[in-house]
Amino acid sequence: MSRRRLERILALLSTGSQTEPTTARLCDVCAEATAMTGAGIMLMSGDVPAGSVCTTDAVSALIEDMQFMLGEGPCVDAFTEGRPVLEPDLAAPVSPRWPAFSPPVLEVSVRAVFGFPLQLGAVRLGALNLYRDQPGPLSDDQHADALVMAGVASRAVLTMQAGASPNAVAEELDIDGEFHLAVHQASGMAAVQLGVTVGEALIRLRAYAFLHDRTLSHVAEEVVARRLRLDAS
């Protein structure tokens, strides 16, 4: 990790605040330090997205929501593969991928996406997502800055979580607590109904939401309220 790059990023995080940086500030610095249009940080649980920690704007929020709902995208691949996942031209990729994720984010002028895993040693936490409204690869400096930023974000997430009680999510990270709770409750109920794992049930919920043009949160609320029951088909 370049000491000079690290010092620059830490200086950006401390700007305007005498306390620990908030998640919102963390995401802002992720975009600023790498000269990207926007950024987001996604936590992962097992092999599925657990939710977004923070985003810089409405577009980056959509990017995170699509990955959470569909289970595919740069953050998902960066986490599962344990390496940066770089797509410099989402509209004309060399190797097409993310058939469900790409169309909706292209509609909001996302042209390039880059995912960097958040991990410390063997501990994997999630991924940092960077996006740009113009196509093109990262420069060497941007790539190096993103790697350092991912390391800083990993430590920040662990620091925030350290103050939480056992088996609980730190308040600073639980910005969408009610939404996440409904989705996880629905996943558990669907797992029992279908006789599958919770991870598989979450995938089924995402698929149902996508096929019926509904949000994952709405489908989860319907399942929890017992107004919707998924079947094996």
Your description of this structure?
With 233 residues, the protein is an alpha+beta fold. The chain has two domains: 3-162, 2-Layer Sandwich (Beta-Lactamase); 177-224, Arc Repressor Mutant, subunit A (Orthogonal Bundle). The protein has nine helices and five strands. The protein has a five-stranded antiparallel beta sheet with strand order 2-1-5-4-3, with helices on both faces. α1 crosses α2. The protein is globular and about 55 Å long.
Keywords:
Beta-Lactamase; 5 strands
In short:
The protein is built from nine helices and five strands, in the order H-H-E-E-H-H-E-H-E-E-H-H-H-H. By secondary structure, it is of the alpha+beta class.
Give the % helix.
40-55%
Which structural class do the helices and strands define?
alpha+beta
CATH class bucket of the largest domain = Alpha Beta
* Terminal residue distance: 49 Å
Number of helices: 9
Q: Which consecutive residue ranges, at least 5 long each, have pLDDT under 50?
A: none
Secondary-structure element order, N to C: HHEEHHEHEEHHHH
What is the strand arrangement across the widest sheet?
2-1-5-4-3
The count of domains is 2
Number of strands: 5
Inertia-based shape: globular
**Overall average pLDDT:** 83
Q: Label the CATH architecture of the largest domain.
A: 2-Layer Sandwich
Q: Examine the coordinates and then state which fold CATH places here, giving the name of the CATH topology of the largest domain.
A: Beta-Lactamase
The CATH superfamily of the largest domain turns out to be GAF domain
> What does the largest sheet look like?
5 strands, antiparallel
Assess the beta-strand content as a share of residues.
Answer: 15-25%
